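Deliverable D2.4 — example input (structure tokens):
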């Protein structure tokens, strides 16, 4: 049996008629940049999240840059980020001349460890970027409280967590700004690059919309210099079709995760923890396991494609070696990164596939 890490083809096949019609409609209307398809998606995604504004942009990395810029982050500032994420979370901070200040992750939830944030706050600290890693909401109640106390902006990185909830509220609606990626493999993925920033702040919304379109809100009225980062029209049309199915897909991911958890009960395996007060959307189903690399190689021999998110924690990547961090600075991030393994996870996964993956993992660890 073959079990790929993700399978975007089954999903396309199941929506082919709707997706093809949406793309064809853009072609027929010769509508390639901006237009109704983009504003329709922006409105529907904002409504889905329960926020005022959604600004489409080129990709999730640009979304973070736009949000940081709107939050006024610039040269000499410090921004707190978790030690485990995709590099976009920290590289966008550096791209604006600010410094990413890494905070260790929680040993059980793997999101930023709230209890270790305050000791990293200095007079230069301007913002916190919590990442809802793997689809589990970061501890937003505590983070918002801390941000208020120290007058810091909060920019949520929601690239793993479209549709995740905390206390009945959608992630993306907690912070001052929140960023999404629509990279194809994400829970809500386009058929190319795409991203969005959401906010309830009117000024931020106007500023980001203008900046992402050469500083214009109205054509030829350049309020500032900006750049070009727009959500592609065809991608917006595809995303509008897919948004209708997001909740259904997230429910399936949750069911698969519960089934994995049930089958993988073993003293040498640590399964993901489910939140009591929220909705995990399992963008990634990650186990903690010894000899991770050997397990991946052996799974590959049985036709199962596993992956790692992420093999090296951010502070230990080459661009940050200048900070001379050692493992004792981020003990959880350092230790857990070498044990993470991501198993196949996508809505269309079958129970037979899950059983095959689980039994193969158990055979290897025994
Ligand atoms: C995917 C991702 C991004 C960036 O998204 P792109 O659309 O690929 O630029 C940012 N943060 C995290 C945590 C991600 O996983």
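Example output (designed residues):
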């Amino acid at each position: 049996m073959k079990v790929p890490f993700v399978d975007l083809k089954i999903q396309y096949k199941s929506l082919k008629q709707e997706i093809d019609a949406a793309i064809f409609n853009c072609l027929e209307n010769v509508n390639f940049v901006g237009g109704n398809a983009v504003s329709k998606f922006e409105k529907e995604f904002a409504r889905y999240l329960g926020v005022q504004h959604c600004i489409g942009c080129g990709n999730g990395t640009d979304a973070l840059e736009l949000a940081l810029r709107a939050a006024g982050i610039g040269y000499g500032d410090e921004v707190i980020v978790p030690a485990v994420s995709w590099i976009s979370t920290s590289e966008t901070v550096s791209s604006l001349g600010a410094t990413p200040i890494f905070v260790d992750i929680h040993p059980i939830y793997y999101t930023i460890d709230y209890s270790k944030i305050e000791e990293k706050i200095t007079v230069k600290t301007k913002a916190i970027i919590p990442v809802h890693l793997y689809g589990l909401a970061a501890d937003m109640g505590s983070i918002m409280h801390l941000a208020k106390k120290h007058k810091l902006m909060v920019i949520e990185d929601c690239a793993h967590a479209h549709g995740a909830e905390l206390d009945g509220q959608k992630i993306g609606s907690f912070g001052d700004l929140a960023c999404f990626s629509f990279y194809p493999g994400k829970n809500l993925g386009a058929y190319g690059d795409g991203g969005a920033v959401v906010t309830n702040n009117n000024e931020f919304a106007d500023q980001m919309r203008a900046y992402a379109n050469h500083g214009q809100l109205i054509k030829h009225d350049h309020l500032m210099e900006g750049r070009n980062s727009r959500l592609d029209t065809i991608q917006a049309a595809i995303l509008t079709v897919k948004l209708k199915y997001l909740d259904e897909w997230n429910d399936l991911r949750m069911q698969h995760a519960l089934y994995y958890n049930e089958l993988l009960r073993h003293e040498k395996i640590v399964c993901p923890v489910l939140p009591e007060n929220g909705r995990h959307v399992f963008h990634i189903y990650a186990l903690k396991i010894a000899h991770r690399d050997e397990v991946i190689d052996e799974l590959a021999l049985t036709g199962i494609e596993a992956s790692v998110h992420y093999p090296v924690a951010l502070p230990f990547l080459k661009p940050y070696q200048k900070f001379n961090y050692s493992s004792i600075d981020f003990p959880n991030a350092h230790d857990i990164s070498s044990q993470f393994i991501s198993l196949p996870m996508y809505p269309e996964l079958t129970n037979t596939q899950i059983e095959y993956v689980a039994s193969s993992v158990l055979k290897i660890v025994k």
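The first helix runs from residue 8 to 28.
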